[in-house]
Amino acid sequence: MIIEERRGRKPKSVPGRSESLPCCVEKKPGERAELLGAIIDNSTRVIYLKDRQGRYLLVNRQYEQSFHLTCQQIVGKTDYDIFPRETADAFRANDLKVLETDAPLEIEEVAPQDDGMHTYLSNKFPIRDESGVPYATCGISTDITERKRSEKMEALGREQAQTWLDRLIEATQDAVVSIDRQGRIVVFNPAAERIFGYTEAEAKGQNVSLLMAEPYASDHESYLNRYKSTGERRAIGRIRTVVGKRKTGEVFPAELSVTEVTIQDDIRYAAFIRDVSEKSRLQNRLIESERLAAVGATAAKLAHEIGNPLNGMAVTAQLLERRLARQVEPPDESVTSVLHRLTDEISRLGNMLREFGSLSRREKYNFQSASLSDLVAEVLEFEANNYAALGIRVEQVFPRDLPLVYVDTDKLKQAILNLMKNAVEAMPHGGMLTLRAHNAAEQVVLEVLDTGLGIPDAVDIFEPFATTKPLGTGLGLVIVRQIVSCHGGTVSYSSERGKGTLFRVTLPLRSSSR
Fold this sequence. Notes:
The protein is an alpha+beta fold. Helices cover 43% and strands 25% of the residues. The chain is built from 14 helices and 17 strands. The protein has a 5-stranded antiparallel beta sheet with strand order 2-1-5-4-3, sandwiched between helices. A hairpin with a 2-residue loop joins strand 9 (251-263) and strand 10. Helix 13 runs antiparallel to helix 14. The termini are far apart.
């Protein structure tokens, strides 16, 4: 290695420190230069010295090996003689910054080599003359290409993982809601938008209690504070069933799983929420089916035990009526009144046994395409005179383009008749009975509306034997729901006391029970 000394200038001595290298061993000037040269040449860093004009004064062996140039080929040349102009411009700008600021500079620089561009971490600092004026720039550059490549791969891996996680959060059917330590929403995925009805923009920044029904909404903040102070876990790490609240105010059952996440010393909580409304409905249907099966089994026994005696009572009552009719003297009015009450009660019990029988029998359904308006018209044809006598006006609203439904016509007519019978009985002083239908996506909706007394809030009208009528069995609507359910549909209602009741039956265009 050739080291050129700058004429007329010597390195500035440091008071109180020997000029020898290393500092603990006294060396002669020649030995010091030889030792310094050995240190520079055996370094794995690229070391170089340039004057104020950017001309190279020296380079070490690592420089020669990296760029395949000898010291003799480099000394006296500038970066513009060795590298592409863009690279040389960058090197020169950094060198001038060191000279102008008279201060060290650490910066990343790139240089072309045989296998491509290499990245160096360069530590550049000024070399001063005896008067303290910078006359050269020394650079010690470490090749960090592999480290940068590893960092880039790690960053790419993190980015890909984050992208995968973001896509997973967007695609999952469960609501993913993340909150900060103050309980404010910071993540609100598309499933959360669909389940709760809020857009991401509406939900972000809001307190998470917005999504909770009582008492969870009121208790949530105290729970967070208690967890922060005591570490007591109630929801974190567990799956709980809670009650959520949609934007519309509707409450629904949900399964909740909460986990704690630490991101750069910031603690957040992520919740995975699953709407289990349908699951609950299916469970309730199963429970109801099991209960109806038990009722049906009991009904079958009752029909068997009571049916024969009841038939005998009916025959006896008919014989009494005939004998009384053949008497010369008309019977006493009290006797005929008692006999009429007896026959009415026997008839009522017979109807009840028939309804019991419909619950107990596993009936087969014969599905076929049919017009809903025609089915309603057939039922009304048999009841029209009776309704007119009771002061009931009937209105039918069926669009011409209403699609056909796939139903068991006899069973569905029975369900329609039961709904109409309930409506008429709710209007003892007359009123308006409206039957209307419309198409809703893959379903047809039939509505039966009356202007009657309405249903009390405390009554579950789909509960077996629950009734608001003094002579009702409480099984008519149970049978309606059973029939509609076998068609793959649903039945619901809304009512207002003194103003009437609306029953809504949904029927799929193709039965799901086939």
